[in-house]
Design goal:
The complex is a heterodimer of chains A (about 400) and B (about 375).
Chain A lengths: L8 E4 L5 H11 L3 E6 L30 E4 L5 H12 L3 E4 L5 H5 L3 H7 L4 E6 L14 H8 L17 H25 L3 E6 H7 L2 H8 L17 E5 L6 E5 L3 H10 L13 H6 L1 H12 L4 H10 L3 E4 L3 H5 L2 H6 L2 E5 L5 E5 L4 E2 L18 H8 L4 H9 L5
Parallel strand pairs in A: 1-2, 1-4, 2-3, 4-5, 5-6
Antiparallel strand pairs in A: 7-8, 8-9, 10-11
Helix pairs in contact in A: 1-6, 5-6, 5-7
Chain B lengths: L10 E5 L3 H12 L3 E6 L21 H7 L3 E4 L5 H11 L4 E4 L3 H7 L3 H7 L4 E6 L14 H7 L10 H5 L12 H24 L2 E6 H8 L1 H8 L15 E5 L2 E5 L4 H10 L14 H6 L1 H13 L3 H10 L4 E3 L3 H6 L1 H6 L2 E6 L3 E6 L3 E3 L2 E2 L18
Parallel strand pairs in B: 1-2, 1-4, 2-3, 4-5, 5-6
Antiparallel strand pairs in B: 7-8, 8-9, 10-11, 12-13
Helix pairs in contact in B: 1-2, 1-8, 8-9
The chains are: A alpha/beta (about 400), B alpha/beta (about 375).
């Protein structure tokens, strides 16, 4: 078995980014993910997205890749019944509607347990399935705002910063962890689960130490690129327009190595010999360090600093990432083929497994309903006539 | 509290000096796994990492959070006795999570081959900034390095912040966001490899925080394939975003037509918003700065609580930028049990975030606060 989750089947009702990214990760690890859509409510990637300048359907959608596609019209009772038949042969049902929507459709946890008693149901939402704010609508920047991550990110003298897709996708990756935990419990006990992932709580979980400080009466505030201990620690200008390099000095040894590399007497100042001294005078050090970095190409500077044992990396743009041999060798960046044969970069599942060499994206974005022969024909055993009747009734639609 | 946490019975050992590996263990123990920290005599470096909790004791808030629920066993892996003790411990372990730099592993008996030979059923998870394989496997990386090596670092800030400070260096996401992604990916890799163990036995899981941070930033790579190179200036929302109010900040994001219509109502149906051309979303995008000037002027003289309450009532996605103290005391999270009191040696009993997951409608629980060093040392031998 070259993919660890081979044999797991997921009925995927998720929409937008967070939920679909969860099932996308699991699909790359071998789970069979059946994406449920309809022509009435196609996935966002099948529509124009003018906010991002995309005026037609996406030719490739990262989070839909490696999934199978079927059409079900959940507004019809027969559609709900068909969805239940699918859940009955699945291990996991995943959804990311507002709390209450699946219940109203007749596809809530209780209803799904009736057709599959040990189903693991994942429900991803902005604020969780319970609590006074559970009805709130939200997107990534709102999760980050509610969760505290936005308030703590930004320049100390500026406003908070809105979180973008990384927020959605970390909710998805967290959800994948929780789904796997629930599947392990099912294997051990036979018990299914309702897995409730609140996006704002995921945001909060990424600042647990600051929340603990607040619980102790402290008032943590955003600190930009500073670090509470390390100095220098920041993003410095490199040679060229809008080029930057991130550098972090973790201890005295690294500081001394940096001093040897930079022939600037400022770095021999005895006030900077200790970590505390460097932190107290970090603005002064940052200025001297920036004067050096500004004369060197960012990647060349990073190579030199790393060779001296110092944590550093150029602030990479997307094309640099897509072309990086290290990321390519690891499968973190991979090449996918679009329907017209065009090749493009995509992001792989972030791990390498010694006994899972086939993990990753193995097919692109499915066309709407592309896999109905397999799913409705082979898996559910519907005859051609039964399928046609459901299509005529706009149930498979 | 849940009666049967999902990972009950699972045994995890962490050997960590960094946040990524530590957090992988924390996620698993938060779901019921037994977690042991294998530490040198002086303790993990994370015990000394700020920020520190108020008081004289220099108690690391970071260590307290990422090590909560664990036991601690001291083990000198530079000695033969220590390595034997670690071998005995790992023989009773399902998942071992380690962030020792590659060059030091063989000397401590922690290299992939040695572990695989001694523990064929163990899930051995390596967590490093750039992974254990590839040209940069020996590169060093703190969180700020990970964020910039994976692209998101270059893409922040955006919105109001970059409008105000267009010439400044990019700014990182708070805390250890990039390293935490490595930890989350490690937990996913561990549980996935464990799933396959009945068929294939133990295996080696190689996690790079860079890969994990890149994965959650996947949309930028997708945009590249679509023909666009994202930049922190251009990826700002055309209108909405961070709004300064009379007493704080709110986030406003209207992506759907009905949300725009709700926003017009919230704003009091002003004349400028009734321009028929603004019914078109594309036109609104084109005239974003003009719209935002109106919206910001409206928000600047109003209180956050009023805006959020009235906005949510008419279906406008709005959120207050909560401070950490507001998150901890948030009535919504109190109802959901996101926080629970834990005893932290040297700092007293404090509310700590338990887990971002709930199972079967119940919050999870922590076994304990962070361990004192070597609390279970005798059991190793």
């Amino acid at each position: 078995m070259a993919k660890p989750l081979t044999g797991i089947r997921i009925a995927d009702f998720t929409v937008h980014n967070a939920g679909p990214f969860c099932t996308h990760l699991l699909s790359q690890l071998g789970a069979q993910v059946i994406k449920i859509e309809s022509a009435m409510r196609p996935d966002a990637f099948r529509k124009p997205h003018p906010v991002y300048g995309r005026m037609g359907p996406a030719t490739f959608d990262q989070v839909a890749s490696t999934k199978l596609s079927v059409r079900i019209n959940l507004k019809k009772a027969e559609g709900v019944a068909l969805a239940k038949r699918l859940v009955a042969v699945a291990d996991v049902a995943a959804e990311s509607f507002r709390p209450g929507v699946m219940d109203r459709l007749g596809l809530g946890y209780a209803a799904l347990r009736e057709v599959k008693p040990d189903i693991v149901m994942l429900a991803v939402s902005s604020s969780g399935q319970t609590g006074p704010d559970s009805h709130f609508a939200g997107y990534a920047p709102l999760f980050g705002a509610w969760g505290g991550l936005g308030e703590l990110t930004g320049y100390p003298d500026g406003p908070p910063v809105e979180m973008r897709h990384v927020m959605d996708h970390t909710v998805g990756m967290n959800s994948a962890v929780a789904v796997m935990a629930a599947l392990h419990r099912r294997r051990a006990t036979g018990q299914g689960a309702l897995v409730d992932v609140s996006a704002r709580e995921v945001a909060s979980s990424l600042l647990g130490e600051a929340l603990l400080l607040a619980a102790a009466g402290a008032t943590p505030h955003r600190i930009g690129n500073d670090h509470p201990r390390m100095a220098p620690h920041g993003v410095y200008p490199a040679l060229g327009e809008d080029r930057w390099i991130a550098i972090a000095i973790a201890n005295d040894v690294e500081w001394q190595a940096l001093g040897q590399m930079i022939a600037d007497p400022a770095f021999a100042d005895p006030r900077f010999a200790t970590e505390g001294g460097r932190h107290a005078h970090r603005a002064e050090i940052d200025k001297a360090l920036a004067a050096w970095t500004a004369t060197i190409e960012a990647n060349a500077a990073a190579e030199r600093l790393q060779a001296a044992g110092i944590a550093a990396h150029a602030s990479w743009t997307t094309p640099e990432i897509a072309g990086d041999p290290h990321l390519r060798a690891r499968g973190a960046i991979t090449t996918v083929q679009e329907p017209d044969g065009k090749l493009r970069a995509a992001v792989g599942v972030p791990m390498r497994l010694s006994k899972g060499e086939d993990i990753g994206i193995h097919r692109g974005t499915p066309a709407l309903g592309e896999d109905e022969d397999y799913v409705y024909g082979e898996l559910l055993g519907l005859t051609r006539g039964e399928r046609q009747a459901l299509e005529d009734g706009e149930v498979i639609y | 509290m849940i009666e049967h946490p999902p990972l009950t019975g699972l045994r995890v050992v962490v050997h960590a000096s960094g946040v990524a590996a530590a957090y992988a263990g924390r996620l698993l123990s938060g779901m019921g796994a037994e977690l042991v920290w294998l530490e040198p005599a002086e303790g993990s470096a994370l015990r000394l990492e700020p920020p520190f909790l108020p008081g004289e004791g220099q108690v690391s808030a970071l260590f307290a959070y990422v090590a909560a629920g664990a036991e601690s066993r001291v083990c000198d892996l530079t000695s033969a006795d220590g390595q034997r003790a670690a071998t005995a411990l790992l023989a009773r372990t399902d998942i071992f999570i380690d962030d020792t730099p590659l060059a030091q592993r063989a000397g401590l008996g922690l290299d992939e081959a040695a572990i695989a030979a001694r523990h064929p059923d163990l899930i051995h998870v390596s967590v490093l900034p750039f992974g254990a394989f590839g040209a940069k496997a020996d590169w060093r990386g703190e969180d700020i390095i990970v964020q910039h090596a994976s692209g998101e670092g270059n893409l922040l800030p955006n919105g109001l912040s970059i409008e105000l400070f267009p010439e400044r260096a990019p700014v990182k996401i708070h805390g250890h966001f990039g390293e935490l992604q490595g930890g989350i990916a490690a937990a996913l890799g561990a549980l996935s490899a464990l799933w396959a163990r009945p068929e294939v036995g133990g295996q080696y899981v190689d996690i790079a925080s860079q890969d994990a941070m890149l994965a959650v930033g996947a949309f930028a790579i997708q945009r590249l394939g679509d023909g666009s190179i994202e930049h922190r200036v251009e990826r700002s929302f055309r209108y909405g975003g961070v709004l300064p109010c009379a007493d704080g900040y709110v986030e406003l994001l209207t992506l759907e037509q009905r949300q725009w219509e709700g926003l017009v109502k919230l704003l009091g149906t002003p004349e400028w918003a009734l321009d028929p051309a603004l019914v078109d979303g594309l036109e609104r995008s084109r005239r974003g700065p003009e719209l935002n000037a109106h919206i910001r002027a409206w928000a600047a003289v109003r209180k956050v609580a009023d805006i959020v309450r009235e906005g949510q009532a008419v279906g406008v996605p709005l959120a207050k930028y909560y401070t950490p103290a507001e998150v901890v005391s948030d009535p919504h999270e109190r109802v959901r049990g996101l926080f629970a009191p834990v005893d932290i040696a040297g700092a007293g009993v404090l509310d700590m975030l338990v887990s971002p997951f709930q199972f079967d409608g119940e919050p999870l629980s922590l076994r304990s606060g962070p361990p004192r060093l070597g609390t279970a040392v005798a059991e190793v031998h």
